[in-house]
Specification:
The structure holds two protein chains of two kinds. Chain A is mainly alpha-helical. Chain A contains eleven helices and two strands. Chain A has one domain. In chain A, strands 1-2 form a two-stranded antiparallel sheet. In chain B, a hairpin with a 2-residue loop joins strand 2 and strand 3. In chain B, about 40% of the residues are buried. Chain B is an all-alpha fold. Chain B is globular and about 65 Å long. Chain B has 16 helices and four strands. Classes of the chains: A mainly alpha, B mainly alpha. At the A-B interface, helix 4, helix 9 and helix 11 of A face helix 6, helix 10, helix 12 and helix 15 of B.
Chain lengths: ~290, ~350
Amino acid sequence: MENLQLLISGISQGCVYGLIALGFVLIYKATEMVNFAQGDLLMLGAFVAYTFLNIAQWPFMWGVLATLVVMALVGIVIERLLLRRMIGEPPFAALMLTIGLGFILRAFAGTVWGSEPRSLDSPLAGGVFASGDLVIGSENVAIILGTAALCLLLFLFFRFTRVGIAMQAASQNQLAAYYVGIPVKRIYSLVWAISAVIAAVAGILVAPVSLIEPQMGFFGIKAFAAAIVGGFGSLPGAIVGGLVVGISEQFAGLYLPPGFADTTAYVILLLVLFVRPEGMFSTIQRKKV
Amino acid sequence: MRFIFKTRYEQDIRLLKHGGQLFWYGLLMLALLLAPFGLDRFYLGELSFVFIYAIAGIGLMLLTGYTGLVSLGHAAFLSIGAYAHAFLLAQGWPFALSLPAATLITAGVGGVVAIPALRMVGIYLAIATLAFSIIVEQVVTHWESVTGGSRGLLVENVQLFGSPLTSPQTFYFLCLATVVIAMLVALNLLRSPLGRAMVAVRDSEIAARSVGINLARTKAVAFALSAGFTGLAGALLAHRTGYLAPEAFTLVVSIQLLLLVVVGGLGSLHGVIFGAVFVGLLPQGIALMRDALPPGIAQMPGLEPGIFGLILILFLLFEPTGLYGQWRKIRQFLDEFPLYRKAAHKRQKTYLRTERVR
């Protein structure tokens, strides 16, 4: 029973990692940039939701919707102002840029909302489902269901809409996509918007579990492990990777000495890279000389 | 404008190209040697700090600027150097043995880490080094018999030439000597076959392999050297702080070091010095600025990292060659004064650059 309990909290934690990893993967697939600020976008999304729901007292659905719109705009602005200038620069420069962006977002959140932890007024929190010894918080259920719904939406979007298919094309071959008339630059803006929205959803879902504060984005680093386990180029892989990391973290916390729980994600990450240095489902080909 | 007509290879690899350089570097050395007799204790301490940053910066520059491998985990090497040094001192080793031993230990760790890291490319390497540094942080926190865990570790005070290292003058001279030696080692390295191989690996792995460079060996040695320099800086840092705690070597420190090499100018040792001065003195600059600002903004939490991030972004967008690149542009402008062309430093734009095919 204890194991089942752990498994469920592991899945819910893993879903959050998976969502952040999804953001990494989307951006990496499309633009070959790794967004180190993804965790901070999550933090920003949570704070924006806090503003709408707690300060402005909007009804939950409208507040969430407004948050998603604001975050999509944030994503577009970031892409237009910063990342677009990085096209053609070495990948290292773009990586450093997003690290700098993370610092700025944290400083911004600290200035506007203050650095003390806050909790979000969310109807998703507080409830409990109990059956026998098993007790599941409603916030964990919300995380799992929310992630599943978001994944389904994304799948339908990439599979059936014109824009989604154009996006796939642009991420497979930027130049060829350009030649067949896909507005690659606008697609990039859209990719950033979608990533920011995913981060905001993750932020709203995770807010009842961990409090909202400017440093909360740091656990986004663990989502790298999720993205790498799933292969940096695969969307379903990101979620699977998140689940693997989340579940193993919970079990490591119970069965291994203290200290191991915090490093599990990184140990998994390094192990995967030792075995497959180019990621699990690699998109890198080696040029033969 | 000065043209040097080179007729022999020795001329090409000479460290001081002409008398002007001898004069200016000599003047700089003289000023640095005389500084302790004119400067306040506080500024002397800050200068020593800049030197320590510069040594770590040389390490990261060799790896990132010259070999093209990005490390997001150099704080780990800093902490390994610091803890190894403090531990050996506590075991009763003399300072003169413990400092090189700490450097060698860190270089060894760097070499071992490099073996799996060699096969990773670009982003994966950056993330793997990040994971490594977080694991090292955890190991330091939990390996209490050696590191003192989260209680921290006191660094023993040492006598050097009959004067305690806590004295700012002695520490200043120690750091100055170390940074000069480290700089000379790096300069010599870069004109040796190994240094040339590193640059070749950075510019094109395929071309480097084609001319017979052993990629794996070059990268591994670069990693070990880089770790060694950073470990040395860590050992000096241990003396500066006098007390080691795991929280002192976080991701933020790694990013500060990257900021140093980017702001200074990737791929130049001048850049290390510029970057070290910049990163070392920035907190003081921000502190001064706080007094001038209205209290509402000045008391802002996280102002300092925010400014760090902002500067990083501005440099990447507008001056990717860093402070040293800017300095060179100013020099050229003055050299060619009335004839300076606006497009002289126009960046060539490449539109498609992919890591997916290597």
